[in-house]
Amino acid sequence: MRTINQYSTAIFCAVFALCASIDGGPGSSQVSQEYWLQQAETKLLNRRARQGSREHQKRAKNVIIFIGDGMGPAVVTATRIYRGQKEKRDNDQDSLFWEEFPHGGLVKTHSLNQHVTDSGASATAIFYGRKVNSRTLGVDGTVRQNDCSAVDNGKIESIASMALKNGMSVGFVTTTLVTDATPAALFAHTAQRGIESDFDAQKFKLTGCVDIAKQLVDYYPGNQFKVILGGGSRKMMPNYTENNPEESELIGERLDGRNLVEDWKSGSGRRSVVWNRDELLDTDYNKTDFLMGMFAPKRFPYELDAALKNKTNYPTLSEMTEAAIKVLQKNPNGFLLLVEGALIDSALHANYAKFAVTETL
């Protein structure tokens, strides 16, 4: 029940939105790690009993988790209407691709301590199966925001760690920073999602929390990931080094002097680092078992920005996904891949409606 089984391909779509929050108080039973596992097992067993035996069905070999950050029902509706207008079709009964999936569902998205979640707690709920406190990652409900001293005792196991234990390969692609809350939830354990670099730790005036970029390169399970594609090179580079040949005027922000991209590249196995779309498309997959792409100092530009400014050095989400699969599918035991379209949420925060629906498409 708590292991990952492999044979065909399973695809999951998760959606969650970010808003201002209202404090709440979790019941004491909900703080424990076992509470949420028992809840999930009970619901799954009840659902299986209603469906009847399906032992003849194959079990999934590969798992791909698609997340449209901010893609709630209102955004989906607006996107469906926008696409119809754009294609000059007067039919509100048209469906977006994922609306044709045979199974779907809704989830209660609150965090453990707030009615409206943040992406750190919601991503942890997706990857760990537990409700946790807002702005924490990879820890149980005993860990409150900014309580770095409680992290070690509150660590929990993610789906990425389970996949690795089952001999699978793991990777992720995102259009935001690779240290941002959603991808970071796959591998990081922290009481403050904002500590993406050691500079951030100083900014938050917190000690004892290992920054997320360092956890990605130095700590399990992140240091076992075979694909890391996204933005956020400034979190990985020292503050005196040009952090991207494509954006030479920008420098890194790390205070420890480490170049985590080079440190990652020096690891075992055949590793490739790419900095732009052309380098990604030219990757020799026969010579690449580990792939890192640092395509922006921060997040990617919006799709409309990229089109207007002709920023062709950024790969598309589909191009990154295809590249990731080419690396990960070499493993006969299967793979786990996270694909995040992160800029829907960014556009919604800025109240850019057209940008949000364009990112959704």
UniProtKB/TrEMBL annotation:
Zn(2+) 2 binds at D69, D345. Mg(2+) binds at D69, D180, T182, E340. PANTHER family: ALKALINE PHOSPHATASE. This is Alkaline phosphatase. Zn(2+) 1 binds at H349. It comes from the Eukaryota. GO terms for molecular function: alkaline phosphatase activity; metal ion binding. Residues 1-24 form the signal peptide. Keywords: Hydrolase, Magnesium, Metal-binding, Phosphoprotein, Signal, Zinc. Belongs to the alkaline phosphatase family. It is an enzyme of class 3 (hydrolase).
